[in-house]
Every structure is written in C-alpha cells, then in structure tokens.
Amino acid sequence: MSQQTTGIHHITAFARDPQANVDFYAGVLGLRLVKQTINFDAPEVYHLYFGNESGSPGTIITFFPSPGSPKGRIGGGQVGITSYAVPVGSLSFWEQRLAGFGIQTQQVERFGETYLQFTDNEGLNLELVERSEGEPSSWSFDGLTPDQAIKGFGGAVLYSVKPAATMDALQHVLGLEREGEDSGYARFQASGDIGNVIDVPLAAAEWGTGGAGTVHHIAWRAQDFEDHARWQALVAEKGYRPTSIIDRQYFNAIYFREGGGILFEIATDPPGFANDEPAESLGETLMLPEWYEPHRAQIQAGLRPIQVRVVEGK
C-alpha cells in the first residue's frame, strides 16, 4: 500500500491567555480567526483556529489557551519551529511590521532560503519564508494586502529524539520525498504547494515538555474520508498504533506517535469550517458541538471573552 500526503493540514499548540493569543495571531500576523470552539475533551478550555479566509487545510494553526497552564519547554518529540510562507518580496515588510510591535527577529539561511525567525507571545518558535508557491490570501486585516499577507504554512522543523525514525515515518508512511541535507538538516517535501517542506535536524534533540509555548501535534492531510480510512490502515500496517477515526466536526482525525516522539495526526480536508456557521462570519461566535449545546451558558461563563481587534504597535 502506498500513500502520499500533500502536506500539513494543521498544527496545534498550547497557550495561556486567550485574548493575547487572538491579539498575536489575528492582530499581529493578520490571520483570520476562523473558528472559536472548545476543546471537546476539556470543555472549560477554548480551541481557537487561525488561518486564511476560509481556514483552508495547510493554513490552520490552532490553540488550546488555558490561563494558568504551565510553561512548556521546546524540545524533542515536538514541532520545534512552525514555518509560514509569505509572498516573494515581503520579508522586509514583515521584519519592519514585527519590529513595530517590539518583536525581535533574526534571519537565518537554510537550503538556500532566508528565514525570518521570532517567537510569539508565549515563546512558540515561528519563522517566515518567501515562497512563490501557494495562493495569495484574500483575508485583509489591519491594512495587510495579498502582496504581504501570510499564505499559510511553509512547513515545519521537527525536533526528534530519534531523527532516523522520524525521517523514516516521513518517507515511508507519509510519502514525502527526501530532498537532501544542508547545515545539519535533512529536508523532505510533500506534493502540495503549501505546508509541504519539512526539515529535520540530523542531531537528536533532548525531550521537550508540554505546556504553553509548545506544539501539541502536527496534522497531515487526507483528501477525503475514503482516503482517510486508507491512511488508518496504512499506519497500522507500518507497525504504528493509530487511534480510531474521531469526528472533530470540521475534519475527521486519527492520531499516532512516530518513533522520534512526535504526535502525528492525519486529518481530512472536508468538511471544513463552514460546516456549522456561514463562511462570511467564521469565528465570530462560540460554536459548540450538539452534545455540549445544552451546557452553553455554563461553558461560556467559564471562558474569558475574546475579540479580534487592531493591536497597537510599541
């Protein structure tokens, strides 16, 4: 059995302050808050999704913001750096924009590309890279134009406690192509035009610890529900232990931990975020699955109010 993912579906991380999370990803980075819901397994915690105008697969970063949660430590068994793709010629704009918010940046080179690296308000590692591939974002906020706006994921850097095992999963389970090595990294590429470039440090990383400012899991794309079932069978055939198929309302999911310690998910492209609210008003209302709807008043009372707003620079 042979399968190939087109790339990243979404990345999910931990945070603390819900409003600060919205201010950074919507206010500073200009992403659209496409869904506000709850952690289905812990309904006292928000689950916030940020992406392009429709929350297309390959653009979505999600957070579980929980006030008072412990600070995590980035390390092995995690996505170490989340990469975003921006239009060619826009990196200097982003350097100036981030500086205007008091965010320190640095430029690094990898595989002939220049990356602008920085951290979010919780310490999560992020980077921007210019890419010609990928559709421009049509979502405009705080004056950002399609010539500047983040398109979606460029990819990710995976920190592994056993790099050979992680690279084996990327190649022989997910179907990525190994492109080569540079400066202590191996590069792998998926077949899509966004969220498709994965770098793995060749040196093993020490285990990280989960908590605010760290990534919980990375999800890969399955094209539809039938393809998803084939992925579940393939993962089991390769010797991993996938979960049962779980309905996450906006996609179906299976999870498994690869040999380098990173939690992988495979998620379906459909049905998408307009599954339970109009596309033109995505993210404006707290959406609950039907089994939690009778408890809406209690759930909302326990969540801090959030709003998308223009953030003033420093």
Describe how the helices and strands are arranged.
Layout: E1 8-15, H1 18-28, E2 32-39, E3 42-51, E4 60-65, E5 78-86, H2 91-100, E6 106-110, E7 113-119, E8 125-130, E9 152-159, H3 163-172, E10 177-182, E11 185-189, E12 197-201, E13 215-222, H4 225-237, E14 246-247, E15 251-257, E16 263-271, H5 296-301
Parallel strand pairs: 1-4, 5-8, 9-12, 13-16
Antiparallel strand pairs: 1-13, 2-3, 3-4, 5-9, 6-7, 7-8, 10-11, 11-12, 14-15, 15-16
Task: Provide a brief overview of the structure.
This is Ring-cleaving dioxygenase. This protein has 314 residues and is α+β, with helices and mostly antiparallel strands.
Overall pLDDT confidence: 97
Low-confidence stretches are none
The share of residues in extended strands comes to 25-35%
Which class in CATH terms?
Answer: Alpha Beta
What multimeric state do the chains show?
single chain
The beta-strand count equals 16
Determine the number of helices (DSSP H or I, runs of at least 4 residues): 5
CATH superfamily: 2,3-Dihydroxybiphenyl 1,2-Dioxygenase, domain 1
* Structural class category: alpha+beta
Assign the CATH architecture: Roll
How many domains make up the coordinates?
Answer: 1
The largest pleated sheet is described as: 8 strands, mixed
End-to-end separation: 54 Å
Pfam family, one: Glyoxalase
Protein name: Ring-cleaving dioxygenase
GO molecular function: dioxygenase activity
Keywords: Dioxygenase, Oxidoreductase
